[in-house]
Amino acid sequence: MKRYAMVIDLRRCIGCDACMVACKAEFDVPLGVFRTWVPYKVVGKYPNVRKMFLPRLCNHCDDPPCVRACPVGATYKVEDGGFVLQRYERCIGCKACMASCPYNARFMLPKHRTYTDITRVVDKCTFCHHRVTQGLVPACVQTCVGRSRIFGDLNDPASEVSYLVSTQSTQVLRPEEGTKPHVFYIGADRNHTEFGRKIYDPQDVMDAERAVFNKNHI
Amino acid sequence: MGDYNVFHNMPWSGSYAIYFFVIGISAAMFFFSALSWYRPEFQTIRKPAFYISFVLLACGGLLLINDLTQPLRFLNIMNPAYLNLTSPLAWGGLNLVSFGLVSVAYFVMMRKNDEAMSRKLAIVGALLALGLPIYTGFDLTVHQNRPVWNTPLMPVLFVALSILSGAAVATFIAKDKNLLVMLRRFMLWSAGAVAAMLVSLLGTTAYGGSGSELTFMFMTSGTLGAIFVGLGILVGTVAPIAVLLTSYGRQQSGMMTAGALLLVGGIALRYSILIGGQIVQTYF
After folding, report:
1. Mean pLDDT over residues B137-162, rounded?
2. CA-CA 20 to 30 A from B209: which of A39, A134, B76, B96?
3. How far apart are CA B28 and CA B269, in angstroms?
4. Choice between A207 and B8, residue whose per-residue pLDDT is larger
5. Does B21 touch chain A (CB under 8 A)?
């Protein structure tokens, strides 16, 4: 049985956001919501400062809380491959899966979309299930200019992800939640990936940005 | 992280708190109506309590359906092929529908003056009514990543809040002296239980790790401070307990004052707990 995983080498990420664009193009992801996103944080002390990028996506957990939380089985895990996927036609829009996801990987599709009538249901990254089952890698991996994102079968000892996970020091996000995530980071610093005190007193500009950002949300 | 250029929304908005509030009162009012078959003090409010319960149940059901982004698909919860029993929402949906059906049957039997059947339905309905605050508590408890929510206290707290809010509403329709004595006890004990649970909740939240600690800060000295501490704890829990302990609190007007304060506290606590558990996550 296959178990797909992604390794993201943060030492190689330059924050070009090409992965976000590739994902948007692959799935016609609407404005204001993302299947993958690359948040950043300025770390260090002047003059030794840098931008730390942390590409994010659904972690395709081995023990996904979203699957447990959905009352109608609209989200499910494909055992062969470990993909966590959505059944749009079943989703009632209760957002229990969104509440249960520790990674904010899920979002509500807006009311209006141009090319499809899949609206007002929860959506998320699929690890590009449609591409992977055709022998391709996910769109974000395909497009990553720095080869920061590496994708493959963790159960295949010859795969690059197996090699990286077994030989490099890797981290997962929020391991304390017990979700067994399958997105591994090389070079992630827990001091920066966890909640910081700064959020208690967010800058006003963030609220203004958030208001603009949320215009397209239901 | 704080510097993120992508923002996340709270999945569950404040309207869920209104749902928790009305469904809690509905459950407690049915319980009081059911109790009337076994305790003579409650006989005078048997019908009005049931009518209030039923109207609030209908309102709660509509609120819940309206909160779905696909309202017409609420029937999916009734579809055995779709039903996912690991989700408390699935149990909640079944509980809600069963409670509605038992309420209708109870109403019919009450109208027919069939005491034997009404008594049986009162017990079944009371158990289903108890399930409503329990399931709403579990709705929050099961999310292991959410500070404040993820505590075994939550279902018990919601049961106490339900009894408290129901008793508060009942003081406005009660006329019998003995009933008022009972309602005062209900309010006092359930408010006391809520106060004790809040102390535990605040303690575990303050010392529960970085996310929990930040949530504690948001709920006490932050954006939710006025609602949670001001309205929820001081105005809605401590003040009514104090009023009920005075001689004024033994009169109906005093009980009604305490009841009104408890209702304010009931909605404020539910709202701040609901929103409080989601603030920090929006920055992750």
Report:
1. 96
2. A39
3. 17
4. B8
5. no
CA nearest to B147 within chain A: A102
- How far is it, in rounded angstroms, from Cα A13 to Cα A147? 8
| Chain A residues touching residue B139 (CB < 8 angstroms) | 96
Asked whether the beta carbons of residue B89 and residue A96 sit closer than 8 angstroms, the reply is yes
Summarised one tens digit per residue, pLDDT across range B164-222 is 999 999 999 999 999 999 999 999 999 999 999 999 999 999 998 888 999 999 999 99
**Chain B nearest C-alpha distance from A209 (Å):** 9
Q: Which of A93, A120, A199 sits opposite B280 (nearest CB)?
A: A199
Q: How many CB atoms lie within 10 A of CB B64?
A: 21
The predicted structure's pLDDT at residue A157: 96
Chain B CA closest to residue A216? B9
Domains: count for chain A: 1
Nearest CB to B76: which of A34, A72, A96? Answer: A72
Alpha-carbon torsion angle A18, A21, A26, A29, nearest 10:
150
Question: In this prediction, does ipTM exceed 0.95?
Answer: no
What's the pLDDT band for B2 if we cut at 50, 70, 90?
A: very low
Residues of B within 8 A of A74 (CB-CB) are 82
Q: What is the pLDDT of residues A69-120, one digit of tens each?
A: 999 999 999 999 999 999 999 999 999 999 999 999 999 999 888 888 999 9
Distances (CA, A) of A31 to A24, A25, B42, B174: 9, 12, 57, 54
Tell which of A40, A54, A179, A199 to mutate to test the B interface (max B CBs under 10 Å): A199
Report chain B residues whose CB lies below 8 A from the CB of A178: 144
**CB half-sphere exposure, B197, CA atoms < 13 A:** 23
CA B266 to chain centre: 7
With CB atoms and an 8 Å threshold, state whether B73 touches A71.
no
Could you give the CA distance from residue A181 to residue A82 in angstroms, rounded to a whole number? 10
Domain boundaries, chain B: 15-283
For B36, counting Cβ atoms within 10 Å of its Cβ (0-12 exposed, 13-18 middle, 19+ buried), the class is: buried
What CATH number has the domain bearing residue A190? 3.30.70.20
Which CATH number is B15-283 given?
A: 1.20.1630.10
Shortest distance between the Cα of A81 and any Cα of chain B, in A, equals 22
**What is the DSSP code (8-state) at residue A145?**
T
Ranges in chain A, pLDDT < 70: 196-199, 201-210, 212-218
Which residues of A are less than 8 Å from B224 in CB distance?
A: none
